């Protein structure tokens, strides 16, 4: 919930009347999610956990 608030505040702070701040925020969140997913998968593979 705190992350959502920070993301909304960042979009509001960077607002310049175009859709660029929201688009950048969405892209940043997608990249962060992908990074977390890939790091987690690497950690599980190193521990030899069977992945689906």
Secondary structure blueprint with pairings:
Elements: H1 2-14, H2 20-46
Summarize the structure.
The chain has 52 residues and is mostly helical.
Q: Helix/strand-derived class?
A: mainly alpha
- Let me know the largest β-sheet: none
Query: How far do the termini sit from each other?
Result: 30 Å
Which stretches of 5+ consecutive residues score pLDDT under 50?
A: none
Number of contiguous helices: 2
Mean pLDDT: 87
- What value does the Rg take, in angstroms? 16 Å
| DSSP strand tally | 0
Large-scale geometry: elongated
Structure description:
By secondary structure, this protein is mostly helical. The chain is 77% helix and 0% strand. It has helices spanning 2-14, 20-46. It is elongated and about 50 Å long.
Tag the structure with descriptive keywords.
mainly alpha; 52 residues; 2 helices; elongated; 77% helix
